[in-house]
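Much of our argument rests on the idea that a fold can be written as discrete symbols. The amino acid sequence and the backbone structure tokens for this protein are reproduced below:

___
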Amino acid sequence: MKATAAIMLMMAVMMTAGCTKDPNNGGNNSGGNGGSSGGGSNPSTEGIYLGIIGFNNGIIEPIKEISLLNASTKNQFLSYIGNLQKGRLTGLYYADYMGLEKLKTYQKPPKLQNVSLVTFTDGLDNYSTQEGVMNPNNYLDPDDYRDYLNNRIRNENIHGLPITAYSIGLRGADIQANNVPRFRTILEKLASPNKSYMAENMAQVNQQFQVIAQELSHTYYNSNVSLAVPPAYYPNEQIRFTFDLNQSATSPANSSLYITATYEKTSNSRVLKNITYSGFKNNVSNNESFEKDADGFFVFKFADLRYSNDQTVSSSDLSRVRLWHKPTDGDWTPESEFKPGQSTSSEVDKNSALIMLVLDCTDSMGDNFIDMKNHAKNFVNTLVSASSN
């Protein structure tokens, strides 16, 4: 009886601990507001909302609760990452489970466009299927836990949006050659289709963190571009906006960044039809305008105009835009009345992104642990730079 009682006491202690605590971070702040303007559990403004979970033998407490990330608050996130400590065992699945739960229960920020889970790990889960709070569905097989998470990632909506999940893996000391296929499968299961990446070294980990940060930052803001056209051209005349030619160019033939369309006149509007793009990823084929500027030009608005590399059109890019027109029986002619400063404009439409970053903090990271933390900090800094545009 004494032996049984001792075993039960030991199990209770293990379940209560469940994690490595960082003395520099203080007590559990679960449910806190992150202490940032517009953040916390009642987000009031558009922005990037980020939370961070570190894991080893459970969740490293306190987690960095989701809150607004910007230039004023970023040091909270950087300090949290810097204070993460290594521990034994790998509670990967429970960490991702908690990440999904935090995303689901956080109040919807205004104009939310993206809900994302970003996971970095170097090993196989060997802890999450224990009895207790870490294993809410009581899975005995780790693969069942993994597949449960995969089903949520692929099929669950949070605040009406699908989850975009990313995974980055680096083979730790415990991943031998015979375990590589299993490790690769785990990365694929914990990510959306084509969003998993298996790195060969920490430099590639950093590179992939940057790729993900850039992709996420593009969901944060749209650049809506307005381009103006004179009210009267010949019927079915072609027009072309070029974004890469200088003022001395005599033809748009050498342009690789342009928008071409057929210009049609109606009684009270103008229509761009059969729009084609070179160097842009937009696919709107028709655009009608009823709006005139002070000089009588019809203003066409292109929502979230982006280059093929997903970058938005900047104000400096707009200063180079030229307008050309060509009747059905003529050649391209520059429109001398088109003035970039007056005939072009852009406005930034800011949205919100809701992101949870999950970081492996196990002993198997070895000397790579410091590099991983630095790369995670770079991830945060890149998101901040995007939100400052």
Notes: The longest strand covers residues 112-121.
